[in-house]
Amino acid sequence: MKVLHVITGLGVGGAEQQLRLLLRHLPARCEVVTLTNPGPVAEGLRADGVPVVHLGMTGNRDLSALPRLTGLVRAGGYDLVHTHLYRACLYGRLAARLAGVRAVVATEHSLGETQMEGRPLTAGVRALYLTGERLGSTTVAVSPTVAARLRRWGVPASRIEVVPNGIDLARFRFDPVRRHRTRRRLGLPDDAFVVGGIGRLTPGKRFDVLVRALARLPGDCRLLLVGGGPDEHVLRREAREAGVADRVLLTGERPGLPDGSPGPDLPSLVCAMDVLASPSPEEAFGLAAVEGLASGLPVLYASCPALEDLPPHTAPAARRVPGGAEEFGRALAEVRAAGPGPRTAPEAARHYCITRSAARLMDVYATALARHSLSPAPQGVSSA
Q1: pLDDT digits (tens, 9 = 90+) for 342-362
Q2: Three-state DSSP class for residue 222
Q3: DSSP conformational letter for 111
Q4: Measured between alpha carbons, how far is residue 323 from residues 94, 239, 254, 281 in Å?
Q5: Does residue 88 sit in helix, strand or coil?
Q6: What is the DSSP string of 163-197?
Q7: Model-level pTM?
Q8: What do you get for the CA distance between the two ends of the chain, in Å?
Q9: Which of 32, 226, 238, 241 has the smallest number of CB atoms closer than 10 Å to its CB?
């Protein structure tokens, strides 16, 4: 099976890194087209041996990208096209149909209650999304919560499949030697209580809540934020104003490069933490929380469909914290007072093993291919 993945960009982000991890485990011949920004994840994919083409799209309304993408799809001889993220889903679905590829799968990574990839969910966004969705075969939701949102939007339930995000459990397994080495490299004392946050530094992630919560905690507490983004200067200013600038460490983007590359990778940084906190009020999955659980961390979250969709006993060290800095400060103080527990992955983390997600996605591919091999081409859409 030959599959083309079309994605909006390949900078460092959850969907982008999830695609790279997935392609390491999919038993299919996969190639990737990125509409824009062939960043660090593109470099990682090429290092993995995956061909990557940069389409060079200049903006949302660069309609010249459509014939270029259609030509790539037509020339590639693909059995199936799989699209990721809003812009790529719009252009990729249409290009696939124009090129005659009728098995088209799209993954919805980022649909929240009020926004998608940072854009407000206006009537226009919804109408354009639903128009493009009808050109596909299947829409994959990364959680049952996202599947329910899609149904409320008007996507037929028969067209929705749930394939959760996955993690590489072995890479996130806790290692005390790696913990010590990473802390030493970052200048973190071995006896410090380290609060971790993972994600893009954007207003929606609400990492300012953790900065202000840190100011309520004793001096041995540190905040380790892993990620890059436009809010970095805002968070640094918040830390100075709260009097905790010397206790906040921002590592920048970590594209999940193989061990041995410069700088601690994400699993090493998670090893260095004592608790993972995610104050974002609106998530489609909550991958950072699952990564924390995979390293045996207690997890405090405001929104995490990945955990909310499972029975509570599968993640006993995870806890939902509604509210802001005061509530997170209190919850973090309680975790600190309880002391360290065993750093073993709970059932919830094992549930999201990447090999399970890859196998489930292959089932979705097989169904899409079978459906279109038996049904006539839809009228009004070119099949050549």
Answers
A1: 999 999 999 999 999 999 999
A2: strand
A3: B
A4: 42, 20, 28, 9
A5: helix
A6: ----B-HHHHS--HHHHHHHHHHHT--TT-EEEEE
A7: 0.88
A8: 20
A9: 241
